[in-house]
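Why does this matter for the project? Reviewers at the last site visit asked to see concrete outputs rather than summary tables. In response, this paragraph embeds two records directly. Each consists of the residue sequence and, immediately after it, the corresponding structure tokens. Nothing has been edited or filtered.
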Amino acid sequence: MYQVDIGEAKEKLLELTAAAMRGEEVAITQDNQPVVKLVVIPKQAKPNRQAGSAKGMVWMSDDCDEPLEEFKEYME
């Protein structure tokens, strides 16, 4: 792990960011105590979507498009 004082980190932010993107962990210290750690955020894997993969899992009744009893008076 690479440690740098917060004052120096202000001046070298681009360099520290580049180091983190290369996989290095960068600790920013204040009064010789680590307070912040820069690490790269891993890319999120895209979900494996495939057309038709839910076939047979969804059911819809034959009367799904019929008006509800409670709303019949509004439909007239």
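We now turn to the second protein, recorded in exactly the same manner.
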Amino acid sequence: MNDNLDTELSDLKVMVIDDSKTIRRTAEILLKKAGCEVLTATDGFEALAMIADNRPDVIFVDIMMPRLDGYQTCALIKNNEEFRGTPVIMLSSKDGLFDRARGRIVGSEQYLTKPFTKDELLGAIRRHTARAA
């Protein structure tokens, strides 16, 4: 495998919003190994303040969360002029057509089913940050 693949992700700020500590921790470990700066939040409310302060390059958001779910969080990000262009990737343990369609409606760029692999996670980041680079 080509080692310089991981270096292309260094210095990217990636946010992971999930109420599952396990998912946040797993994503954080995988992303940090790839050289990303990782921000984590437990729900949409916590995330929105952090997004404004930290301006992540890519945002992963779980669909099922208390208070503000992933769809609502994504819609709020995409409705904000400043963050509309930030790629949002939905995370869900369900792999339903309805969920995927609803994710598209609120503006998400992609949909990953949990548990995700390292390749899926990093592949999603590459796909959506290459356009901006």
